[in-house]
Design the sequence.
């Protein structure tokens, strides 16, 4: 039921992500991020927020921007906003967690990126020089091969026209991006389904509230690897078990933005001081956002509950749309079927008229 409910929204998110990937003018982006001022930090945060890059895939893109001349504050801002949210995770958040999470999650992600980027600019002086020979970078010029999130090898061919460019973006969304999401997303949906079916509602409500619970979730989230979209059904399971909305929000923010491998690379590329500010910014902002959400939730009487945490299926999307969407995702997740479907799309795009 969870998979059926999420499927059309995930398809929509992948479609938009593919088109964003195809049409983002990333060649100019690296030039706009060279200053370490508030404008470049805000640009990095706003550009990174919708991008279809997971917490592992964002690393080569962000450090590529850095080597292409982006300032340290702008690089940190991009590193935070990109994995914490995205068009695909917003769509899945809306259907699984409700409109409040779908709005608050990207908003706090951008605010976290802004505040942490500005903090890095103030606390970690930027070394002068070193960017004179930098060249503008295509964010997606180096991408992971299918099924390998953290590698960055295959170069993107320059699109020949509007149709080809859009098709290249959709190919990326329904192959590499879907591969990045599929394993963890399937795990999250299965776990959420088990929790909703087996665990009594509000089982953890006696202790999973308040700052201490948020600190525990933060400590668990920092070392683990989970992408923004795949973390959503896990957050749903936490909510069903009685975890407060603010505590779930801490998991949704800190989990995708941090992991041991990513922190090690941040330290290597930006320095140990930048890594500490980066980690502290994510932790502090996530905790403050969680506390604020819990306070607001109490203020509105807890009426904005997530639809599936009560065990009911959102029936606003008809079965004739949810079932084909799920079958489409399954087909693209199987590589022989994917090659067949993409080959047909290629022939349609290449045919005259």
Sequence:
């Amino acid at each position: 039921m969870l998979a059926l409910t999420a499927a059309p929204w995930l398809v929509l998110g992948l479609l938009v992500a593919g088109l964003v990937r195809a049409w983002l003018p990333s060649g100019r982006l690296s030039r706009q991020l060279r200053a370490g001022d508030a404008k470049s930090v805000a640009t990095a945060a706003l550009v990174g927020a919708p991008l279809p890059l997971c917490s592992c895939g964002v690393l080569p893109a962000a450090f590529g921007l850095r080597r292409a001349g982006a300032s340290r504050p702008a690089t940190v801002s991009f590193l935070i906003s990109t994995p914490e949210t995205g068009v695909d995770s917003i769509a899945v958040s809306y259907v699984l967690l409700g409109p409040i999470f779908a709005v608050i999650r990207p908003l706090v992600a951008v605010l976290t990126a802004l505040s942490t980027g500005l903090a890095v600019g103030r606390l970690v002086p930027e070394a002068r020089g070193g960017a004179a020979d930098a060249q503008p970078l295509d964010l997606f010029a180096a991408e992971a091969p299918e099924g390998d999130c953290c590698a960055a090898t295959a170069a993107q061919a320059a699109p020949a026209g509007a149709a080809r460019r859009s098709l290249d973006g959709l190919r990326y969304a329904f192959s590499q991006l879907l591969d990045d999401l599929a394993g963890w997303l399937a795990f999250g949906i299965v776990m959420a389904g088990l929790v909703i079916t087996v665990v009594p509602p509000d089982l953890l409500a006696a202790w999973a509230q308040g700052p201490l619970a948020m600190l525990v979730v933060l400590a668990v989230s920092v070392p683990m690897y989970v992408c923004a979209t795949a973390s959503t059904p896990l957050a749903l399971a936490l909510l069903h078990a009685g975890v407060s909305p603010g505590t779930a929000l801490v998991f949704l923010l800190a989990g995708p933005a941090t992991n041991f491998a990513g922190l090690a690379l941040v330290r290597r590329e930006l320095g140990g001081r930048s890594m500490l500010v980066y980690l502290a910014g994510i932790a502090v902002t996530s905790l403050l956002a969680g506390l604020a959400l819990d306070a607001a939730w109490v203020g509105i009487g807890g009426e904005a509950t997530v639809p599936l945490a009560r065990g009911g299926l959102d029936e606003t999307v008809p079965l004739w749309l949810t079932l084909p969407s799920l079958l489409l995702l399954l087909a693209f997740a199987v590589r022989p079927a994917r090659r067949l479907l993409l080959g047909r799309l290629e022939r349609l795009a290449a045919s005259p008229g």
